[in-house]
Amino acid sequence: MTEASATRRQILAAAGGAAAVILVRPAQAQRFTSGAMNLAIRKVVGEANVTPGKIKLDIPPLSENGNSVAMAITVDSPMTAKDYVKAIHVFTEKNPQPNVISVMLGPRAGRASIATRIRLADTQTVTAIAELSDGTFWSDTADVIITLGACLEDTP
Description:
Elements: H1 8-28, H2 34-45, E1 50-52, E2 55-58, E3 62-63, E4 69-75, E5 85-92, E6 99-104, E7 113-118, E8 124-132, E9 137-146
Parallel strand pairs: 1-9, 3-9
Antiparallel strand pairs: 2-4, 4-7, 5-6, 5-8, 8-9
């Protein structure tokens, strides 16, 4: 079949086959644990120490629905040309992908704060890490209880 002579039905059939392959893969993915979260954190920070403090993770301790959990993060930083937050990263221990979000910042941001909503698969610990311009990493964690989980594509 050449592209010029392909019928609509042949194109849809070919696309449907590709979509089926994509949908099968998440079911085969491994269940993530705190070990996977720690590995994801090490990929971001390398061998650097991560110290508690300077960053505040504001997330409700109980969420009725894991499909949309409000979260705000602020970092204590003057945000000057010499002293600023380079990035904020959020990790979870039970989501299919432990690195939920990474936000790159710079001194022109004015304030080191973000607010968004995330999906949480289950009751778990959420960790926020701030990367500062001096190469240090700071963290805050929060335990969140989820009554109705999200991200459940790998469950039977």
